[in-house]
Each structure stands twice: as C-alpha cells, then as structure tokens.
Amino acid sequence: MSSSSTTWDYAPAPESAPAEIAEAYGLFIDGEFIEALDGGSMDSIEPGTGQLLTRFAVAGQADVDAAVAAATRAQPAWAALPARERGKYLYRIARRLQERAREFAILETRDGGKPIKESRDVDIPEAAKHFFYYAGWADKLDYAFPGRRAQPVGVCAQIIPWNFPLLMAAWKLAPALACGNTVVLKPAETTPLTALRLAEVCQEVGLPQGVVNVLTGAGETGAALAAHPGVQKLAFTGSTEVGKKLAEGVAGSGKRLTLELGGKSPHIICEDASLDQAVEGIVQGIFFNQGHVCCAGSRLLVQESVQDEVVEKLAWRMQQIRVGDPLDKNTDLGAINSAGQLETIQRYLALGQEEGATLHESGQFGTLPEGGYYQRPCYFENVQPAHSIAREEIFGPVLSVMSFRTPEEAIQRANDTPYGLAAGIWTDKGSKMFELASRVRAGVVWCNTYNRFDASSPFGGYQQSGFGREGGRHGLKPYLKLTSWGAEG
Amino acid sequence: MLRRTVDRVAADARAASFRTRSIKKDAKLQGLRLVVSMTDLTTLEGKDSPGKVRGLCRKAVDPAPGIEGVPSVAAVCVYPNHVALAKQAVAGSGVQVASVATAFPSGQAPLDLRLEEVRRVVADGTDEVDMVISRGALLAGRTQQVAEEIRATKEACGSAHLKVILETGELETYDLVRRASDLAMEAGADFIKTSTGKVAPAATMGVTLVMLEAIRDHHRATGVRIGMKPAGGIKSAKEALHYLVMVKETLGDAWLSPSLFRFGASSLLNDVLIQLRRLDTGVYAAHYDVSKE
Predict the structure, then answer these.
(1) Which structural domain range is residue A377 located in?
(2) 3 state DSSP class of B165
(3) CA end-to-end distance (rounded Å), chain B
(4) Which of A334, A469, B67, B279 could form a cystine bridge with A326, CB 3.0-4.6 A?
(5) What is the mean pLDDT of residues A361-385?
(6) Do A428 and B7 touch (CB under 8 A)?
C-alpha cells in the first residue's frame, strides 16, 4: 500500500466547438444589419487575451433616429397581433437560444471574459428561460393585474450592461415584447456580440421588422437614445453614476423609467449557520462572474464567535479557485471584462490598504493566456464600516470581511449603506432568519443561499440601487399602461 | 464537541458542482490509475466461495494483465470466513485484506459477540476491519453507547486499521451523518465509511462531501488525518473521477492516497479498466473483454 500522496492536476480542457465571429458588425435596424450612417466603428477586445476580437458600428444621432422611427412604425401592428401570436415569437426565440446555446456560450465567454462554465450553465439557459417565462404571459396580461386594462407603453429604449450581456438583453426584451412594445436595445461597448447574434435569431424566427432594433456604441449612443423624444420608456441596468444622469435627463419628459443600478450587498453569517455551506455561499456570492455582479455579496458580516473559523475556511476554499483561460471548462474565475475595469479593481486594492485594511490574495493561476486581464480572488480583513472598500461598489472579485456581535448589530451594519439591492442571511434557526430578512433593507434577500435567479422572481433595489422590478409578474408592470376598463389609456 | 449542522440543499449543490470538472488526457490517465490503487475490491455475498475469493484476490493483485502501468488495488474486502484464505492469496503483493465484522451488515448482535468476531478476524491476519455502528442506538439518541462500542472495537483491532461504517442510508439526515462522523473520529476510527452496500441509498456525492468536511474539521482541530471510504453505488469511472475531484478540492492532494481514501466497490474496477484500455489502445474494449471476477 502506497502512503505517498500524489499531486493531481487537471489537464487543460478548452471548449473547442467553433463559433463564427465576423471581422465587423453593423447595426440592426428595421430587421436589417446596416453600417452606421457616419461610418463610425469601435474595437471589441477579447478580455481573455487582450487581442482584437472584432469591430462593431457606433450608432450616431441619425442611426438612433432611424432605429426609433423603425420601432415606432412597427409598434401598432405588433401590439395589434393576437397576444397568442406574440407569445409564439417569444417561444421561438427561446427555443433557438437553446438550440444555439453552445455557440452563444462561446461568444459570451470570448467577448466578456466570463468562464465558459458560467456562460454555458447560467447565462444562456437563464436567458432562454426568461423568454419562455414571458412568452407565457403574453396572452394573459388581462389577468396579471385584476380589474385593470393592460396596454403597451410604446417604444422602449433599453440600455444594458457588460456583466451578463445576453441575459440582461433577455431580461429587458422578453417582458417588453410580451406586452406589445417595440424596442431599441443598446448593449455595452465591451460586449456587443451576443446582442447582435440575438438580433440574428430575431431574423431567423421571422420577428416583424422594427420590433427589435440593436444599436451598438458607447456612452454617447446611449445618451442620444435615452434623450430621443420618440421613446416612451427607458430601462437601464448599469452603474449608479450613469443611472443618475439618465434620471436627470428624463425628468419632466413624461418618459417612464426603471433603473437597476449598483450595490454593496451584505452577506450575514450567524454563528448557528451551517458553516461549510455558508462559506460556499460567500464564494458564490462574491466570486461568481469575477464579482461583476450588481447584487454581489461584497460585504461579509460574520458573527464574531465564528469569525476566525469562517475566515480560515474561506481562505482554504479560495485556494481552490482556478483563475485562468475563460474558455477552459475548469476555470472558475475568468478574465476581468476590460482593462479599465481591472484598473478600477486594482485602484480599490491599493486604496483599501492605504485606508488600513489587510489584503489577502488567493486562488491559483492556471496557464494564463498572455495579454489578458486577470485578477486573483481576494478579501480584505480589518475593514472599518467607513472605509471606501466597505461602502463603494468595486465590481470585482474583492470581498470585505467585517463582523457583528448581535443580530441587532448585524441589521444596523447591513443597512448602513447607500445601496439596497440584495442581502444574504445564513442561519439554521428559522425564526432568526425571518426576523433578519424582514429588517434588512434590500430588494432581494437570499436565505441559506446566494445569487439564485429565476424568471418568475422579481429583482430590483432600494435607494441608490435603483427602482422598478424585473422578473415575475412585477416585471410586466413597467411595460404596461394600466387603466380602468372603459377609459382610454 | 461543538455540534455542527449541515444545510442539505447547499451541500448537495456543492457536491453536484464537482461533476462539472472536465478530466481529460493525462489527468484522466493518472486519475484512473489512482482509482484502481484506491479500490477495496469487494465480495460480500452469502454464496461467496473459496474459489470466488481466490479469483478476486488474483484480480486485486494484477487487475489488468496486458495494460501497462495499472497498479494493484488497495485491498480485498471479504466476510470473516474468507480472511485466512484471502491473506494467503495476496501474500507478498502489498494488497491488504479487509474483513467486515461486528455482525455486518446490521450490527444486531450482543457487543461481546461482535468484539469476539473482531478478535477472530484479526487473529486470522486481517489488516483492516470494517465495522458497523449501532444505528438503532444512534437514532435513539444514545450517542455515548455508539462511541463506547467504537472505542471497544478499536481496542479489539489491535494494530489492524479500523473503518467505521455509518450506514448513511439509515441515518437519513446530513445532520446525523455529520454527528456520527464526528463521534466515530473521536472514538478512534482510522477511516469513516458511508455504507455496507446492503442498504439503499449507499454512497452519494452529497453524503461523502458531508463526511469529508467532518474530516477536514477534525484535521483542523487535532492535526490528525482520518481516511474516507464511500462504498456501494459507485459504478462508473467518470463518477469515481468526480469523487477524486471532490476529495482534492475539499481536503487537498494529501488525501489522494490509498492510505486516506478508498472506494468500496465491486463493479467499478471493470469500468475503470475499460477506460484505461481505451487510453492505452485508442479503442473501447467490450465488456466481455474484461474478466468479471
């Protein structure tokens, strides 16, 4: 019997299926892919390698006008379709996403840097689920809000972020289309690929021209779209900073607005929690998608009596996190989305230490492709509630560890934030769980789990985390004019 | 002892996550060889005969004549009646003999008879003793009794290694699996083992994870490394590799050794051998190309 132990490492397991990426992409307006009128374009960089992936068109004011005009033309007929027919289109989109899932997963990973494991198991299936879910609502809108008459709002401008490019497109498009609206969608400038491929799916399923339009570009494109007078509803997911500007812009215009913004969500671990599972929850909470998650559990609040044990277990667990090539099936933490975001994260790592917190970097680097944007998972100890790293959203794989002594103190510290998007609570005691969950001020509260999503469950925040809900029946509301029967909306 | 609870939903989700690891090429070859070296090749049937035990031992020593680099298995696991024969059959090979004892699989016999059984198999030369705990006593809350019985069995083992079978299929909850793991380790187990193979469900990844986490906490607290043996129900090479992933990422490479991790299995070995032959020759063997016994 051999008593010597072995070192056993996993061989590289790159996802090798082909997924075609063109040299350049146009805008999707009125059912056609076209060049930007002024010919503008931008580079899209692959974060895993730092290399040029493709080029895409930048929509200017004239393109925004054309897209909004197309959406405006298409809207009455789309709304007038029998609701069941609208539902059928959404079902078709959902099925095509499932059929082309592998291709979408590869595009998402190459364009955005997230591990293939996550785009394959989370992003793409969840996006399909969202279309399936809202397809079911399309012909039941009159029953969604009893006693109210439901009518579409009109043309919706939807601006989405780079952290879950396809999934956020699905979150935005599915309810809007189910309710009879038409859409101009603007994906983020670092991740335009899957939204454009989704536009191709819209063509494939024969979606009427102009119902969905996709404008790529940067901040100016988004601003022009948001400001367009032909838009009746603006939905934005992204940073609080940009969200505030958009809110100022639409003030007094009569446009409807929903904002899903940043967060600094507390993750509370009580001493009676199942600690090994809680540690797993912490890891899922902050390191999922490199921490590029608006509801990331970035503030760990652990009860002092188990703090050492939890931190020790967390440190061990973090050593198992494999940082590497996003296309490798065994990669847990892929590439940071952009050079700019890596810089932001590293600025916070320096700032946290300047302010007096202790930084621990962990994880293991696999074979890193040269030139990519990588950051090890890390946590800070000795964090004070007033530190920047305890208050500001970092949007990276960085956890701030703090403690509490009593449940009262846990609630007070959890709520001491300008945000209010999500919270996590780990305890094996049911009564304590309900007490904490009802007093933590957050749009989503997860108990003995974290980062669970479902199309049927509403999602959204308080305070600086925005307003409005997406998902579930609640997610229909922002896309409907609700009037009493007999009144004209 | 601090009483630890386990959240079943989250533990099962974590256990399932190990299945997403992709084990290819060299990692697969090395992993499969490791699986062979960690196998307790088992026959525990009423119809076991000297001939069958002899055949099992032959296969344990040289599982795959003709495929290069395949090690012997860790041990053969038999009923007490076959210990002396098995010991003779594997002599000089490095393969250990493990005997079930303590009125396996139910444990429903007076303690003095169970201990006598242990002393007899040790006298017959067994290297390892696989005991069962009194599940009835544990479910009734008589944890002290269970701990004392394990202590007494450990003493009867002398220098033989003791594996303590919890029979997790009868304990049902992860909380109780965790408590049984903790008390077995404190009472002197060298290994903790999921199942007899006679009760369904036998080993699952979820229950094994709970026990590995108990072993990790025991190591944190005492510095002592306890071994783990999932038994029953692990039939495919792919699944066995996922268990290795779970061990590696829960306890570390130190546990990737037959001295700290075993598979209790009978049919698993052949699937592993078919996979190893494919890596060797590039084609899959038919099931009839590998001897059943």
Answers:
(1) 266-454
(2) strand
(3) 45
(4) A334
(5) 92
(6) yes
Identify the domain containing residue B171 by its residue range. 39-288
Q: In percent, how much of chain A has pLDDT > 90?
A: 95
Cα-based distances in Å from A137 to A202, A477, A485: 19, 12, 20
Tens of pLDDT, residue by residue over A346-357, are 999 999 999 999
CA distance linking residue B105 with residue B131, whole number of Å: 9
Is the CB of residue A280 less than 8 Å from the CB of residue B14? yes
Nearest CA in chain B to A11: B27
β-strands A41-46, A51-57: how paired?
A: antiparallel
Is residue B2 within 8 angstroms of chain A, CB to CB?
Answer: no
A324 pLDDT exceeds 60?
yes
What is the predicted pLDDT for the residue at B280? 87
Q: What is the mean pLDDT of residues B115-126?
A: 98
Q: Give pLDDT, residue A489.
A: 44
High-pLDDT (> 70) share of chain A, %: 98
Q: Is A267 on the interface with B (CB under 8 A)?
A: no
B139-147 contacts, C-beta under 8 A, 24 or more apart = B139/B170, B139/B171, B139/B176, B143/B179, B143/B183, B146/B180, B146/B183, B146/B187, B147/B183, B147/B186, B147/B187
What's residue B292's pLDDT? 77
Interchain proximity A5–B4, CB inside 8 Å: no
Put simply, the answer to whether B213 touches A320 (Cβ < 8 Å) is no
Q: Flag whether pLDDT at B95 surpasses 60.
A: yes
Q: Quick check: is B292 catalytic? A: no
Same domain for A321 and A295, yes or no, is: yes
Mean pLDDT for the stretch of residues B48-62: 97
Instruction: Provide the H-helix boundaries in A232-373.
Output: 240-250, 275-287, 307-319, 339-354
Tokens of B237: 């090479």
The 10s digit of each residue's pLDDT in A450-476 is 999 999 999 999 999 999 999 999 999
Q: Is B258 on the interface with A (CB under 8 A)?
A: yes
Q: Are A318 and A283 in contact (CB under 8 A)?
A: yes
Q: Are strands A27-29 and A32-34 parallel, antiparallel or unpaired?
A: antiparallel
Average pLDDT of the residues in A63-80 = 98
Is A218 found in the same domain as A232?
Answer: yes
Strands (E), A164-275: 182-186, 212-214, 233-237, 256-260, 266-269
Question: Residue B216: which CATH number?
Answer: 3.20.20.70
Statement to judge: residues A203 and A307 lie in one domain: no
pTM of the model: 0.95
Kindly state the DSSP code that residue A25 receives in the 8-state scheme. E
Query: Which amino acid is located at A46 in the chain?
Result: E
Structure tokens at B194: 């999921």
Reduced to 3 states (helix: H, G, I; strand: E, B; else coil), residue A441 is coil
Residue B273 has pLDDT above 50, yes or no: yes
Q: What is the CA radius of gyration of chain B?
A: 18
Q: Say yes or no: A428 contacts chain B, CB-CB below 8 A.
A: yes
Q: Tell me what pLDDT residue B285 has.
A: 81
CB spacing of B254 vs A281 below 8 angstroms = no
Residues 6+ apart with CB under 8 A from A343: none
Residue B202 confidence (pLDDT) above 90: yes
Return the bridge partners of B265, or none.
Answer: B41
Same-domain check for residues A236 and A273: no
